[in-house]
Amino acid sequence: MQSMNIHLWLEARTRFSNLLGSISKDDVHKRIGDCPNSAGFLIRHVADVELLFSKNVFGQKELKVSAKTVIAQKDTGEWTDLEELLIYQQHAFDMLKSGILSQTEADWQREITTKEFGTKTLAEALGRIVSHTAYHAGQLAIILKYGK
Known about the structure:
By secondary structure, the chain is mainly α. The protein contains five helices and two strands; from the N terminus they run ααααββα. Helix 1 runs antiparallel to helix 4, helix 1 runs parallel beside helix 5 and helix 2 packs antiparallel against helix 5. It starts with a helix and ends with a helix.
């Protein structure tokens, strides 16, 4: 199951990862109409949440996380440095991948409780991070295509 879970997550995350290679430094400012979130905010937010999952769900307790987008709960306009965003999201990718790979077969049925989503098995929590990233990847794709 571990092999299946990592492959599932990696494939699902391509919806987000594949967008990153085509983003320009001007794209991070893009938004659609009155949409409160810029492309830069969404990149940072996906990475913030992946790091939170790495630490709080998949047990990487030594990981230091400052989930600024979660704390601010809105785009404050500070996520505009594309290189920094790409480095940060790669770090989040690496940490979440490591966290997923560190789980044993039995771990996937273990329950965890968080204030964000209640009690879930690790398998269910994996579904949660997969859907979260895919949701925001869709938003990012629309912003990159139609945003100004």
